[in-house]
Each structure stands twice: as structure tokens, then as C-alpha cells.
Amino acid sequence: MIRVSIVGASGYTGGDLLRLLLFHPHAEVAQVTSERQAGRFVASAHPNLRKVTRLKFVSAAELQPCDVLFLCLPHGETMRRIGEFEALAETLIDLSADFRLDNAQAFEKWYGHAHTCPERLGDFVYGLAELHRDRLQGARRIASGGCNATATILALYPLHREGLLESAVVEVKAGSSEAGNAVSEGSHHPERSGVVRSYKPTGHRHLAEIHQALGGTTIHFSATAVEMVRGILATCHAFLPRELAEKDAWSLFRSAYADEPFIRLVKERSGVHRYPEPKLLAGSNYCDIGFERDPHSNRLVVISALDNLMKGAAGQAVQAFNIAYRLAETSGLEFPGLHPV
Questions:
Q1: Which residues are catalytic?
Q2: Percent of the chain at pLDDT exceeding 90
Q3: Which of 84, 221, 279, 283 has the fewest C-beta atoms under 10 angstroms from its C-beta?
């Protein structure tokens, strides 16, 4: 068994990560930390785990050495404490934004302050398996991708890799489990759910990851909160250099994702669920992707949906963990979602 601990486990992402790892066939959860709730049972923050575990939160100062540390801390904490964490575990999987970018200038531009250890940016592999599976094998420093960035990159990457993406306009609708963190993005501490508020119409930090993955393609990006707790729906208006026939679009997406365990192509001719729908993905690690041709222009509308706390955070991190340790990639991630919801 691989001994794992979670730093910052009282928030939404930490809770989902704990839920997954408790049932992972190859992981043993050693410790989970929360400074505010140290000494309390984890069910005090995560009531869905009642009678599932008797683990208690501990302070980070009480952490013992383990094999893997999952870091669910606010942005800025991992890079500030990197030496502390490396002394405790061979493998670090960071769910904040601290090491997602490989360029210190880009980090300062998008996060408004200098990176405190820019020399370490190249040590972390971006944790999106569909793009970096080979590099993740055996990796011991992993930076899990942002939820909005993940939905957008997965939607547009097949077009980008074929040189067919001239530009794109992306509108993300996000659930309150993400939008509640607009002030301290990435901390994933519990907030009220169901609150509708504008999230980030322009200048969203996740755009830096999208630019990094899609090679500087012109992307216009907005994100808005809607009446949903979990979930992201990304509507991507992709502008192409030429018209793309329906069969060619199918071929392009199938070529990119046919062998991916957590990508599903969703495009039915009729019925209620013709296109990706985030509520069907709650609790699952799937990203559903569909598309529609504009018959009057060279525009392809690509729609992607995922659970922001799963494929956009905890599930993605566990998938990367599985690959890094050469386990079955789907281990601990088999839950298919619920219907009806």
C-alpha cells in the first residue's frame, strides 16, 4: 500500500480527495490536516464520510513522513513551504496554481506577484493525463490543472494539435463550489452553495494554463457562476481556417480521445441528453465533449462538461497519482455519476 496524506483536507477539494483515497485499492490514508479543525473527526467537515472513517484532522506540524503528499492549500502556500513538504514525502501532488506554469514571467503577469522559487517551476509535470501521460509516469512532482483550464484545454486540444485552431471564444458556466472561491481562488474552503455571482468575465488566471497548453492561440475567456453546486460547462466557439465537415470533426475527436478512459464524446441526434451536461457528471472523473458545426461559417462550437471538484481537481490528481505509480489509471475513479439527478 502507498501511504498518502492530505494537507489542507477540510475544504471541498480535500474532502473529495479523501473520499476517493479512502476507497483506493492501493492507497492508505495516513493523515489529513486542518489548522482550524485539528483534533476533530473529518466527518465534522465532510458529513458524507460519517461511519466511513474515524480519521481526525491534525495540524501540519504533526505530519509524519509518507510516500505521497497531496497539497490542497491556497495559492502561494506550496511554493513558500516546498522544503518542508519535500522533507516529508517522496512525491508531491499540488492542487494549487503554484507550479502549473513553467514560466516565472507568466506567473507574475497572471498572479500579480513574483514566484518565490522560480527555479523549481520546471520540476513539476502538469497533471493533465490526456496531454502529459508519458511525462507523468514515474513523476514525483505533479501540478494538478485548474478546473476551467482543464475543461477548455480538453475541448480545444484536438483542433490545436491538427493546426486547425485559429482563435476561440470560451464561456464557462461554473458551479458555486468553484465560484465561492473567487476571492481566494484555489483555497477550496467551504462556502455557501447556490449563490449566483459573476466570477471572472475577463483576465481569469486559468487563461495562463490554456495559453501554455494551446501554444499561444488567441483565446478570449469568461467564467460566470450559475445555480449549480458542482460542475463546469464550457462552450468554446472555435474559429477554423477552413470549413470542417461533420465526418472530419468526428474523426478528429475520435483520433484524439478514443483510447482515453475518462473522455466521452457526447453528440446524439435526438433526445434530452444530446450534448454534455455537467449535472450528470457529479462525483465522476469524466469529461464529456460534444460539438456542433456552424453551417454558415468556419466556426465549430465545442462543448465540454466536467465536475470541477473531480476531473477539475481531486479526480485529476488521483488519475495522475495512478499514472505516476504505474497503477491502473482508473483505480479509485470508477464511479460513473448518477442519473436521474
A1: 147
A2: 86
A3: 84
